[in-house]
Design goal:
The structure is a single chain. The chain has 292 residues and is α/β, with parallel strands linked by helices. The chain has one domain: Ribokinase (UDP-N-acetylmuramoyl-L-alanine:D-glutamate ligase), CATH 3.40.1190.20. The protein is built from nine helices and 13 strands. It has helices at 26-36, 51-62, 108-115, 130-142, 161-170, 178-187, 194-204, 243-256, 261-276; strands at 5-9, 13-17, 20-24, 40-48, 70-73, 79-85, 91-94, 119-122, 147-151, 173-177, 209-213, 219-222, 227-230. The chain has a nine-stranded mixed beta sheet, sandwiched between helices. A hairpin with a 2-residue loop joins β2 (13-17) and β3 (20-24). It is globular and about 50 Å long. The termini are close together.
Length: 292
């Protein structure tokens, strides 16, 4: 079976949890789950020349995730985020400013990597600085043959209407959760119900897929001529960190393997449900969850 390559572009950071720190950041989580599910996942990011940065590289290497395209910044620290977990296992985040991933810089080898990739996933958070925003859109410009996935990941106030619109314009796939869709619907004056709002974005931005996750209430995937609307799987939630990223990775691989919308949705839901039942963003994945 063909093994697809998918790139996660953006932040690598440490989630500082009540019981300690865990490595994360949506692009790193995405790349990890691509690998764990049978693809080749490669994070493209930046860390500080510090102990947290060296530890991040060591953990990614231990997970057999390539670190060849994670650069080292001598002036800015490795990113951290304070993650608070509520009684339902849902995380909220606080992000310090001026960390290494705010200063992304990609060399020729990274542009060549992205140009040859089957998929590239990017989000909004890493675009909070103009430096990183320009770098991300530069490598996206090289990804002419890649499926470009905009996993919107709105955090705090690190987003603007223009930044979101620009990202959707270059994307093939929009992945968004129900809370984020409510914000985007208000911002872009979209129709009230979820399905109609997604259809409006699908048409306006000429998307291949619009993907909505609703936590325990399931997920909705739309293309221009098909729809899959599935209820969630009962899960004893430990925490939700990394669950959305695992859904995105599973959805990406299933799509690249040519599965139907319902098959894509069921598979991504199974993977995300499993991750919700584990601690942290990068749990070990059972072989039965590997795509194909």
């Amino acid at each position: 079976m063909q093994q697809f390559t998918a790139i996660g572009v953006g932040e690598v950071l440490w989630d500082v949890l009540p019981d300690g720190k865990k490595l994360g950041g949506a692009p790193a989580n995405f790349a990890y789950h691509i690998n764990a599910l049978g693809g080749i996942g490669i994070p493209v990011s930046r860390i500080g020349d510090d102990e947290l940065g060296r530890e991040a590289l060591a953990i990614l290497n231990d997970h057999h995730v390539s670190t060849d395209h994670i650069s080292v910044d001598a002036e800015h620290p490795t990113g951290t985020v304070d993650a608070a977990i509520d009684a339902a296992g849902v995380a909220t985040y606080t992000f310090p400013d001026d960390v290494a991933w705010d200063f992304l810089s990609f060399d020729k080898s990274t542009h060549e990597l992205v140009a040859g990739a089957d998929a590239v996933c990017f989000g909004t958070l890493a675009q909070r600085s103009s430096v990183s925003q320009a770098a991300i859109h530069s490598v996206l410009g090289a990804a002419s043959r890649s499926l470009k996935i905009y996993d919107i990941n709105l955090r705090q106030d690190f987003y603007t209407q223009d930044r979101i619109a620009t990202s959707m314009t270059v994307a093939d796939v929009l992945k968004i959760n129900d809370d984020e869709l409510a914000l985007v619907s208000e911002m872009f004056a979209l129709p009230g119900d979820e399905k109609t709002a997604l259809q409006a974005l699908l048409v306006q931005y000429d998307l291949t897929l619009a993907v909505l996750t609703r936590g325990g209430d399931g997920s909705l995937i739309l293309s221009k001529n098909d729809i899959s609307d599935l209820s969630g799987q009962p899960t004893e939630v430990v925490d939700t960190i990394g669950a959305g990223d695992s859904f995105t990775a599973a959805m990406t691989l299933a799509y690249l393997h040519g599965q139907s919308l319902n098959e894509i949705n069921r598979y991504a839901t199974r993977v995300a449900s499993y991750v919700c039942g584990q601690a942290g963003a990068m749990p070990a994945m059972p072989d039965e969850l590997r795509v194909g």
